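Minutes, project check-in

Agenda point 3 was the complex the collaborators sent over. CS summarized: two entities, 788 residues total, and the question is how they sit relative to each other. Sequences were read into the notes so everyone works from the same version.
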Amino acid sequence: MVDPTEILAGWAEFTLTPPSEYFLNCLRSVGEATAGNGAPAYQPDTISQLITTIAGRGYGPLLFRSVHVMSAAAVQNMQLDQLLVTTHPLTARHASRLLFAAAPDCPPTLVRRDGILEFREPGSDVTVFKLTGGQVPLAVACLEFLVEALGFDCLHTAFSDLTADHGSARRKAVTKDLSARLYNFLGEHLPQMAERNMARLLAEHLATKVGAPQFTAEDIDDGLILDFWIENSGDDALSFRLFGTAAKAWMTFRDSLIHSQGDAFDVHLSLTASFEDEDLDRLSQLAISRAPDAEDHDGTTSPDLGQLVGDAATPTGWISDLQRPPCSTIKFLTKTELTQLSVPALAGAAGHGLVLTCLRLATFGPLQNRLVQANRSGDVGKDDIELEMAGITDTVYENHLADWRALGTTVENIATTAFLRLWDARNPAIFEYLARCGDDGTRQEMAAIATDLQDRMTPMDADDDPVGKLALMVLDRIDTLPSDSPLGKQRKHMKRVAQSYRRQGLRAADIVMEPAPDGEQASGPTLSQADPDHLHALICGGDRLLKLAGFLASMDQPDQPMRSHVLDDLAIFSHHLSNLHETTS
Amino acid sequence: MTPASYPDSPPVDRETAELRLANRLSVEAVQVALAQSDDATSTGSAPQLITFRVMHMLATGGYEGDATLLLDQISRDFNQRRQFRGILSTLSIARQQQQAAAASRDDGGITIRPGPAFDLVLSFSSRDDGAIYLQVKFHSKLSQGAADDLDGPRPTMLFADRDGLFTMVRLPEMMDDTIQIMLDQSHDIVQAVRDPETEFFIR
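CS then shared the predicted structure for the full assembly.
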């Protein structure tokens, strides 16, 4: 059997991002297929060709041939499954017997001549396509791959179309449709070639600027990004016409350089996150079976562990987390706030190094989008561009920074509200918040209560979940503190903040509390009875919001002379946008 | 404005940097594609590999393993359910689609589920031993339907798709356009006949 991983392992583009398991399984299904007599359905070289053709994205001609094979079968009143599932292995000889046998009722659109099938246009003698027996096995293998990848229904619909119409126009339409579907499928399951090319281009540019084949995050700064855009935006062969595209690519590059210094667990990000669980199980097994004391006598751990999947912790990742379960059940941020956050978040976790780029992106990105749109619907003159530029004041960067500062406060306040609800629900996650966000007085008071209660805990208390019990006892003790104690003041402050953020899922009434059984209330600390899913969402969302608030705080540049930057950038962008988008003088 | 310094960050060689950037961009592109996908469950599980050929063998009676186990596996996965349903739809020689609840009728302990090509009739055994007879009554010679010749496909299997849960029974010989089979009351196909939302396929 030809395994796709054996062939694709040597391909440079799959070194760090392998194709998805789903894709590989589709190829394996074809490679392992057996004919009715139990022999492999296809020759090994057929499978090898199929793998390289599909993975190399050079499937156009093969797909066209496959559609003609389907059409030939349809013309001869065969069923799709009769073409795919054969009694004998599909060799060139068997393919000839299957498709090339002279059928008495064969229409004139399909002619057999000298071992070649000729497809003719209905109503004319013009031959539009020729098919040899040797081409059929790979074409059928391709069809079987499509059945696995796109589904039997999809292929059956195509086959029905070809049964109904024997003309070349229909065959072309079917090919086009299948090609589009396969393109989308590969887009989800194979690393993208466009991204590979972009990475190569940026690395080349940086190597030229740095003058060495080694990079650090500091090599990518605001000046380099702006210069790169000015140099390359006019090149139609590249895709950097929009400042936003260039800026985002460089910010991602910078962020990935920072993360490149992490451990092996950061290296591999799965193409299909849905396979994470399976991968984790598989890798756990590998880790166990290859633990140093089990098999690896040289003392090294399994290199396969480096393939563990995981998401990098970035502001965009935190924003995504807020928008998917479990957090999505709570309205933490409005759409406007999410849109506002998206620009600085692009700069990555260490975004404070590219604040100016973020400000340029926030200011000139939407403006350039408007010009591109105007270009599509008509001419753009110098006046139009000047008019757009005139709308930008010299305080625009300061205004953006102020907006981000205000957004940071909002995000922090919503986190505070989320943690207050956790406090209301007597969830121990509140301690983490108090430790992170409380003042020294709060922390000291909390530590004193914990120490005191720990000393008083009976051995019986310590038997079963001592930490959980201690947490609940601390919460009970905090309830008895006077309102002017540090923790009392902290709670009062949190309550005040929460009054301004009565969003769905964050209101006090949204924490559904069921009465605890009487016996428990009488004998021990009060247990939390709130909906565990809701609490999970509050913990996860609160954590992401605190991270985002910290990130936005790092973007603050209080002492920078922003106005001079604006004036410089207005001149640069005005000139360059005119070069790019002006169509009339 | 000067970029922030990272005194502790060691340099990264160009090849690694390039590959990791491409990796990140690819992942982001895929995430966008997946987010835009209407069908979020299309890759939403880690299914055990059940190939088209295995499903084809199951649908055509050529599968030699435990069919019930395989049908259970197919039923548990959205993609495989859809694939198998597509195969059954194509290969079946007769089909009875979902019907309104009022369409089937109970007549003195006999449940009749009528259909355009065949009726399904459930009746209790007169011995009162918990057994149930399932009759498949064809309205016309099958050869007049899917196949043109009188020696056309002989019905060999009855598949039920009950809200994505597949079950099947192998059918004995047909006598006078009717097939009769004895089943236990608890058999899934019995429950499926009673459920108007079940679809049946005969192969």
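Noted in discussion: Chain A has a mean pLDDT of 82.
Follow-up: revisit at the next meeting once the mutant set is ready.
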